From TrEMBL:
Range of residues in the leader sequence: 1-18
Taxonomic placement: Bacteria, Bacillati, Actinomycetota, Actinomycetes, Kitasatosporales
Region (Disordered): 38-60
Source species: Streptomyces purpureus
Keyword Signal (UniProt): yes
Domain of life: Bacteria
Protein name from the UniProt record: Secreted protein
Keywords: Signal
UniProt biased composition (Polar residues): 49-60
Length: 60
């Protein structure tokens, strides 16, 4: 019976440890400041699609 009690206490302790770790991770993520959403690479805007001197390759 003592082995069963030890197994039960081990399971309860493991569940409590896992729950505490989960709450700790969530608390740590909430405490961290949000990162700015700034792109590392930017590309120039393409020229406006209007009248051009080159023919459209798909119009043939």
């Amino acid at each position: 019976m003592s082995r069963l009690l030890a197994a039960l206490l081990t399971c309860v302790a493991a569940a409590a440890l896992a729950t505490g770790a989960a709450f700790g991770i969530v608390a740590a993520l909430d405490a961290a400041p949000e990162q700015q959403n700034v792109p590392l690479v930017t590309f120039p805007d393409p020229p406006a699609q209007g009248s051009s001197s080159t023919p459209d390759p798909g119009a043939g």
